[in-house]
Design a protein that fits this description.
five-stranded mixed sheet, single chain, Sig_transdc_His_kinase_PhoR, Beta-Lactamase, 12 helices, five-stranded antiparallel sheet, 4 domains, phosphorelay sensor kinase activity, membrane, alpha+beta
Length: 454
């Protein structure tokens, strides 16, 4: 830890502590020169050697100035942090200003050193690992937590971080930080069966600040949740299929009592709803587990848009909306046609379900050369803005009663979110209550494909 320089009290240790103009100090030298010349003139007139005495006076004055210069140089060279010599005239003013500037600089330096020491102490106390990496990708500094979580040792100072954390996922993340704004989760290189979340930030050009923390417990809980959802969904499919089959058999009987028919119709509707929920859970589970599956198909957007439009018209029979299709882009998409169709279809069916009968729904595909946009615009009931940040959460519902009436599972937008994340896209939502909503899917430029590019 650095010790700050001692900061003396200038007012107590320097007798010349006053704010005066340079002319005030220069007048002291001029008065001294005038005094020497006056004495020399008197002696010269008395002895008959006027010019010689005047030259001697100038020489004495010049010698005093050289002495002052010598003292100034000796102080600056050997004792810059001591109180300066007590000089008069311009040299005194120079020393005073230099000393005052040095004192202010030492005060600022002491404050900065103290601030740095406090910052380092707080970083050392953190449970999260912190690593400073320079422009050459070499490790400059790390806190004790980095030794526990990342396995960095005292001999690693100055080593390239990529020779210590050699996992392919980390190397990819290190070289493309901007493409992973949420950071990277990977296995710990120091502890088996442990996971760390790593986030890096650039600063000062190509230097990097790496922060990592243990997410093993969170990872295990998430894995337990995924396994539970996956297993329970598979286990539910068989009994639901059996129930649905028997209910459909009873419902088709012509001599069925109307009271029983109403009960079987309700059971059939709820069974379909449960089937839809199980299918959505299985789809969501598959999307989470297949993140590394290549999404490099060329999806012909005009054909997909027309297929979605035809499906929407079939779904719209009971609602009577006016459906419009607006395509003004010649770009196709690079991705998974099945997953994209599922995400787009979810947005379209949501718009149809939550728009009062006789509304207008417009499905669009556009681009501005930098991004591609799939849009669904409706004149529906709209959404309160306070609900918008949570719409893509699983099972989040703005109105539970309304969702039950429409048969929603609460997973549609969660599926959309996962599909878009795997295609480097994101969802923008603009909505006003009783005026309608606009759902816009934004794709980056590298996901757009033009046939003339080949």
């Amino acid at each position: 830890m650095y010790e700050p320089y001692p900061v003396p009290e200038l007012a107590r240790e320097h007798k010349k502590f006053r704010y005066s103009s340079l002319w005030t100090f220069a007048k002291q030298d001029l008065r001294l020169l005038a005094f020497f010349l006056l004495i020399a003139a008197c002696v010269g007139f008395g002895t008959g050697y006027l010019w010689s005495c005047l030259l001697l006076a100038f020489a004495v004055f010049f010698a005093l100035q050289l002495r002052s210069l010598f003292l100034v140089n000796e102080w600056i060279s050997n004792r810059p942090y001591d109180v300066p010599p007590n000089l008069d005239g311009i040299w005194g003013a120079l020393l005073f200003n230099v000393y005052r500037a040095q004192r202010q600089e030492r005060i600022v330096q002491a404050e900065m050193v103290g601030l740095i020491d406090r910052a380092q102490s707080s970083l050392v106390a953190l449970a999260e690992a912190v690593v400073l990496i320079d422009e050459m990708h070499q490790i400059e500094w790390w806190n004790p937590a980095a030794e526990k979580l990342l396995g960095i040792q005292s001999l690693d100072r100055g080593r390239n971080i990529l020779t210590i954390l050699r996992q392919p996922g980390f190397i990819e993340y290190f070289n493309h930080i901007d493409q992973a704004p949420d950071g990277l989760k990977m296995k710990s290189s120091a502890f088996e069966d442990h996971y760390v979340q790593i986030k890096m930030t650039r600063f000062g050009g190509e230097s990097r600040l790496l922060v990592a923390y243990d997410v093993t417990r969170m990872h295990n809980l998430e894995q337990m949740r995924k396994d539970f959802v996956d297993n329970i969904s598979h286990e539910l499919r068989t009994p639901l299929t059996v129930l649905s089959g028997y209910i459909e058999t009873f419902t088709d009987q012509e001599d069925l009592n109307p009271r029983w028919k109403r009960a079987f119709d309700q059971m059939q509707a709820q069974t379909k709803r449960m089937n839809a929920l199980v299918n959505d859970l299985l789809l969501l589970s598959r999307l989470e587990n297949d993140k590394k599956v290549a999404k490099n198909q060329i999806v012909e957007m005009p054909g997909l848009m027309n297929q979605l439009f035809d499906d929407a018209q079939a779904y719209n029979v009971d609602y009577g909306h006016t459906l419009n299709l607006d395509i003004d882009s010649h770009c196709d998409l690079i991705g998974s046609d099945i997953e994209l169709a599922s995400a787009f279809s979810n947005l379209i069916t949501n718009a149809i379900k939550y728009t009062p009968k006789g509304g207008t729904i417009t499905i669009g595909w556009h681009d501005d050369h930098d991004h591609g946009y799939f849009t669904v615009e409706d004149t529906g009931i709209g959404i309160d803005p306070r609900h918008l940040p949570r719409l893509t959460e699983r099972f989040y519902r703005v109105d539970s009663a309304r969702s039950r009436q429409t048969g929603g599972t609460g997973l549609g937008l969660a599926i959309v979110k996962h599909v878009l994340m795997q295609h480097n896209a994101y969802l923008e939502i603009e909505s006003h209550e009783n005026r309608g909503s606009v759902f816009k899917v934004v794709f980056p430029k590298d996901r757009l494909f033009k046939a003339d590019e080949t």
